[in-house]
Amino acid sequence: MMMTVMPKDPRDEFEDLYRDTFPTVSKFIFFKIPNKHDVDDLVQSVYTDFYRVLVEKKQRPDNIMAYLMTMAKSEIAHYYRDREAFGLQVDAKEQDPFDQIPDDHNEALEVIERSTVDMIYAQIGKLAEIDQKILVGHFKYFMTFAELAKQLECSENTVKTRYYRAIAVLRDQLAEKPGGQK
């Protein structure tokens, strides 16, 4: 990739570029990696490397998004290569973890208003992986059902159905008090 010398303060430039590109890069990695914590680590690694190029080396790639996506693809490849090298099983489901999704804002907002973020993530973590992808994609990345369906390679109706079912499960789980009482 072509690099140019940067005329602007590199730290300011990095901050602006980070803000502009983070949603796209993080969504891309999110739908390729099965574990949320690993997703966060890979996104951090991409932007740490990008910071080094931009701030320490004072170089600016001509096409920032293409450069970042190439870095993200490389990090994902390393992730799966390392898992195989350490004997961690990598199955087809992990490499392509997409299916279906559901939707209902009023019900979802009621659940969110009564629960803490930690409680919600703990309950989301108990759902099927596909349902986790749908909920996080919808609420964290503000993806539409159509976008999620395309990313998950399934129909929009499947996405909506899974979303509604996951929201109903969350509502029931979060409505329960300790000890199983409602």
Description:
By secondary structure, the protein is mainly alpha-helical. The protein contains nine helices and two strands, in the order βααβααααααα. The chain has a two-stranded antiparallel sheet. The chain is elongated and about 55 Å long. Mean pLDDT is 78; it is low at 90-105.
Descriptive key words:
3% strand, two-stranded antiparallel sheet, mainly alpha, 182 residues
Strand content: under 5%
Sheet/helix structural class = mainly alpha
Low-confidence stretches: 90-105
Radius of gyration: 19 Å
Task: Give a brief outline of the structure.
With 182 residues, the chain is mainly alpha-helical. Helix content is 69%, strand content 3%. It is built from nine helices and two strands, in the order E-H-H-E-H-H-H-H-H-H-H.
Topology:
Elements: E1 3-5, H1 10-30, H2 36-56, E2 59-61, H3 64-85, H4 92-95, H5 105-114, H6 117-124, H7 129-139, H8 145-152, H9 156-175
Antiparallel strand pairs: 1-2
Helix pairs in contact: 1-2, 1-3, 2-3, 5-9, 6-9, 7-9, 8-9
